[in-house]
Specification:
heterodimer; A: alpha+beta; Aminopeptidase; seven-stranded mixed sheet; 6 helices; 34% strand; B: alpha+beta; 5 helices; 35% helix; globular
């Protein structure tokens, strides 16, 4: 039998907690840099109860087209962010991947990279998926390096798709095939 | 105001979709297993009854009405007697000026024909001349070679190739993303005018 996929060296992955996570998300959403790394939509603010509704809606997904985990740092057992699969396409055996580390003290220290590796193992070894897709903005160089460590390869970019800070930035597409991850 | 017609090309026109009137033809298309479905219907290939087709069209039109980030078009012959395809601008990202497009034609052959090219050109005009987007994207399966040719002939450039992202016809295929910027479109139109 295999080991517990939800426990790594520095972090563990847990089900999202609609109440407590919602409060933390409301705090993280006020961090403009964090929000702009997460999404190309206009940065917006939601209150905790709106975030709770959103998490509960995600968890109600009967067809299992997505799953979100809360990332806990093992040392203090502290929630530091989230990672998940979105738009799982069962007949294509593919999914999109998203991650956000809301706690700045945990940026650039390998927590996100480990979470991305763990969610890839879950996708390939447990869900039987064939490939994972992700998008990253060209200004998020730290994330691109982290995804490359996991095995993701840049597969192209949509030119000038994001308009921020008075400039246009590319959206970079990266992909990870099961055979490349296992290599 | 300039007398511009955004919805008519020499051989085809763009019209609204009509869930009741178009359901029958749309259902017929899905009875060829090689039919390429709408992106909004990311389910495995399967035939739709007329009632199912109507329900799907009803749903997408209702959603488009509510969220204002998706527009639908029927591609028809000039006399409007035949529905040749369906096109959509979905996920209109007003903040960034970026939009995705999808086009589904009645059968595989149609994608390489003049009807498809003219529809792509009308959609480009709409995107850049009416709603003033900065860029237009479309992602399509690599097996749709007719559409690849039509996209290249109308100024789209390949930007992304997601390896083996699609399973169809017992094989894995790349998903190819094409894009055109407003500046590419303007340049193309200016040079067309010079040659006229």
């Amino acid at each position: 039998m295999s080991t517990n996929l939800y426990v790594g060296e520095k972090i563990r992955l847990a089900a999202r907690d609609p109440k407590n996570d919602a409060v933390r998300m409301a705090i993280w959403q006020r961090d403009t840099e964090f929000s702009r790394l997460m999404d190309s939509d206009p940065v917006r603010l939601w209150n905790a109860s709106q975030n709770t509704t959103w998490i509960e809606k995600q968890q109600k997904d009967d067809a299992f087209t997505g799953i979100d985990f809360t990332i806990y740092a093992l040392e203090e057992d502290k929630p530091i962010g989230f990672v998940g699969l979105d738009e799982i396409s069962w007949h294509n055996r593919t999914s999109w991947v998203g991650i956000g580390i809301g706690e700045r003290d945990y940026w650039g220290k390998g927590y996100g990279t480990e979470a991305m590796k763990m969610v890839a193992r879950y996708a390939f070894e447990e869900l039987g998926l064939y490939r994972l897709n992700l998008n990253v903005f060209s200004y998020n160089e730290r994330a691109i390096k982290s995804y490359e460590k996991v095995g993701y390869i840049v597969e192209g970019k949509t030119r000038e798709a994001v308009h921020r800070d008075g400039k246009r930035w590319d959206v970079i597409f990266m992909g990870l095939l099961e055979r490349d991850f296992r290599r | 105001m300039k007398n511009t017609n955004l919805f008519t090309a020499p051989n085809i026109c763009l019209t609204a979709l009509d869930a009741v009137a178009d359901a029958k033809r749309f259902a017929t298309w899905t009875h060829d297993s090689r039919f390429i479905p709408l992106i909004e219907d990311d389910s495995p290939t399967h035939p739709l009854s007329e009632a199912q087709a109507k329900k799907l069209l009803d749903e997408i039109l209702k959603e488009a009405d509510e969220d204002r980030t998706t527009f639908w078009f029927g591609i028809r012959t000039l006399d409007k007697s035949e529905l040749l395809g369906i096109a959509t601008l979905h996920w209109i990202d007003w903040g960034n000026g970026a939009v995705y497009m999808d086009i589904t034609m009645k059968n595989l052959e149609e994608y390489g024909k003049t009807s498809t090219k003219e529809a792509l050109e009308l959609l480009q005009n709409y995107v850049f001349y009416e709603i003033h987007m900065h860029r237009l994207s479309i992602s399509i399966p690599a097996y749709n070679t007719g559409l690849i040719e039509s996209l290249q002939n109308t100024g789209f450039i390949e930007e992304v190739r997601r390896r083996e992202a699609i399973f169809r016809f017992d094989k894995r295929w790349d998903s190819i993303h094409f894009g055109i910027l407003a500046s590419d479109w303007k340049e193309k139109n200016d040079s067309n005018k010079l040659h006229r």
